[in-house]
Amino acid sequence: MSAKGNLINGEWVFTDKTFNDINPSDTNDIIGTYSTAGEAEVKAAIAAAKDAFQTWQYSTPQQRFDVLDNAGTEVLARKAELGALLSREEGKTLPEGIGEVTRAGHILKYFAGEALRAHGEVLDSVRPGVKVEITREPVGIIGLICPWNFPIAIPAWKIAPAIAFGNTVVFKPAELTPGCAWELADILNRAGLPKGVLNMIFARGSVAGPLMIDGCDAISFTGSVPTGTRVRDQAVAKGKRVQCEMGGKNPVVVLDDADLDNAVNSVLNSSFFSSGHRCTASSRIIVTEGIADRFVEALGKATAAIKVGDSRADGVQMGPIASQEQLDIARDAVTKAKSEGGVVVAGGEDLTFGTPGYYYAPTLIDKTTADMAINKEEVFGPVASVIRVKDLDEAIAVANDTEMGLSAGICTKSLKAAETFKRKIQSGMVMVNLPTAGVDYHVPFGGRKASSFGPREQGAYAVEFYTIVKTAYQFPL
Predict the structure, then answer these.
(1) What is the pLDDT of the chain when averaged over all its residues?
(2) Dihedral of the CA atoms 331, 334, 338, 344 (nearest 10)?
(3) pTM above the 0.85 mark?
(4) CB-based contacts of 54: which residues, under 8 Å, 6+ apart?
(5) Of the residues 245, 378, 411, 457, which is catalytic?
C-alpha cells in the first residue's frame, strides 16, 4: 500500500517515515498509509503559505466563492463514499458519517456565499469634510489544529472561512483520522486554489505546534483542555491571535414536569451517539427527585438496548470507541465512579464481536454526586452519570459547578423554568427539550470558562477571528 503525502505548495510531499490509519471496528483493517511530516515539512508549509498570501489576500470574492462552491459540490456528490471512509476510520455509524460529510459540504457552500458578503461602513467624521471607511482585511497565515472526532466537518468549518476571507492555511489534522483530512485537502486543491493557499501536514503536535505558533499569524485549535491551554498560552505569549475550543462537561437537567419519552430520547442521543465523542455530549444528567426513579429506569433500559457493532453495519446505533487510549479512559472513569459509590445501571463492560475492535457498552451510572471525578473530568466516551437534586435552583447550581461551559440542556414543560435556565446557566449554548449535541453550521459555536477562548466559530461570527478591522480617514483630495 503506497503512502499518501502531505500537501505543501500545491504538491504532494512524501517522507521516509509513515503511519497507518486503523479501523477501530476492526483493528486488523489498515485503511491507508500516510507520510509523517517532520520539522522540515512543517517549515516548508508555513513558507508556502506566506508566499501565497502575498497574492491571495488580493483575490476577488468571486475567485474565493468559486473554489469553496466547487469543493462543496464535490463533497456533497461524494457523501456516501466519504461518509463510509469517515465511519471506517473514526467509528461513527454510517448514517452519522454521511451526515457529517453532508454538513462539511454545506459549510463550504455557506462560506462561499460569505466571501461575496464582505461588509464595511462609511461614516462621516466629527471633523467637517472627513470621511471614515471601516473595512475588514485577512489576518494572514492561519494555523489550524484539528481533532479526530469530527475529521471532516471541523476542518471544513475552519478552512472555509479562512479561505473565504483571503487568508492562507497551514492545516494539521489529527493523526487518528488522516483519511478524511487528505480527501478534503485534495478536493480543495483541485477546486481551483493557487499553490500554497492550503497546506496540510501530517505531523505530531509536539513537532508542528511550536513551529506553527512561531510562523503563523493566528492559530485556531480544537481539542482537549490541557492541550488547548498550552496552545493558548504559547500563542498569547507571542502576541498571536488565537481561538480555542477545548471541550465540555455538559449538563442536562430533567425536571419533574418533563415529557419522559422526549427527555430519555434527548439524553440518549446526546450521551451515547457518536460513541460519546462529541464535546457537546451530555455527560452529567441532573434529575429532580419527583421524576428521577422513572427517568433512570427508562433511560437505563434504552441505554442497554442500543445496538453496538461495526460502524458500517446495518442497524448499528453506536460504533466502537475511536482508539485504545479513549477506551482506557472510559474504563478507568467507570471503575473510579464505582469505587466512589456510583451504581452502574447499564453497560460498564467491554463488548466483543467477530473482529477485534475498541468496543465498549454505553454506560449509565446512577447515585453519583457532584464532587465525584466522573462529574468533574471529561471522559469523551459513551459514559453518562446521574446526579439527583431537589429542584430547579439546585439543578442550576450543580450544572454550573464545573470549570467548563460549552453546552447545557433542560427538559421541561415550564416556560418559566426554561427561561430561568437559559438566563442563569453558564454555558455558551443552551438547548431546551433537545439534545445538547447537534448544532447548526450557520450560527455561532462556542462556550465559556475553560471550554472556549477567543471569538466564536461558524456562521457570520467567524469573520471576527479570520479578519482584522481597518479604520481609514480621508480628507477630500
Answers:
(1) 97
(2) -110
(3) yes
(4) none
(5) 245
